[in-house]
Design a protein that fits this description.
Glutaredoxin, 10 helices, six-stranded mixed beta sheet, binds magnesium ion, Rossmann fold, single chain, 271 residues, binds guanosine-5'-diphosphate
Length: 271
Amino acid sequence: MPRLYQRKIVLLGDPGVGKTSLVQRYIYDTFQKNYMTTLGLNFYVRTFEYPDAQVKLLIWDIAGQKSRRKIGLRYLQGASGALLAYDLTDPISFDNLAGWYEDLKNANNGKDVPVIIVGTKLDLAQTNHLPLAYNVKKLGDTPAAKANLIFTSAKTDTNVDAAFNLMIQEIVSGLLPIPDISPKIRKEIATKILFFVKKGDAWSKVAFNHLEKVGKKYALSVETIDAEEDPSIAEAYGVTALPTILVGGRHLVGIIQIAHLEDIIKQMLES
Ligand code: GDP
Ligand code: MG
């Protein structure tokens, strides 16, 4: 009998950043301009089957949410992970993430809870040519500052699955075996960072510059692959979401903070 794990995930972030849209896209594959705001909570359940384990995720979303102060402890307690959502067109919603993280931590007796940072409304950010700037320092000295970051659009269905997958990976890591990679690919990625991206995205240049800097330090070349133009290459490497950084056999989906990327590369070179 596979073991059953039940885990709670909460959606956090300022009102209006698009949390409900994100989860509704993920669960029902729909997008609406307006959601009926009911009082209380919405729950969503997804169960994942693995060879030796069954993981049941309970995703909690606050309905008709007003402000941080009104979030009850019960919402935050017992969370195994959180999606910290901010609106890519609203820098203040990013600055407020540190506060959301603090609430989460306090509600869980000071325990660090794994988080993924989700920038939302990528479609708007791109059409308005926003710089998509964010200042990681605003996250302070918290694990959130090193958390994985991914840009999404619930409207155009971009990276929504990937965002939840990142969270799921984080939660089930340790429960599941490491995927098998062919020796040929293993050899290739030992000397390279492969960056699968949709070329011309406003933020891909910024990310590429970071990657090059880190790559140089560890004598790894960086190769950019336009995953839309070359879907078969992306497929061969098992890339399902953009952007993905493939390094040392690991798929890093979303834009990884540099400190995090460096740690991963170091570990990879040491092993
Ligand atoms: P919540 O308060 O964080 O749950 O935010 P909602 O999911 O209710 O979304 C607030 C508003 O932003 C709604 O009008 C949504 O239609 C809109 N919205 C959410 N996600 C997106 C997106 O990816 N793109 C665009 N253009 N609008 C979005
Ligand atoms: Mg909502």
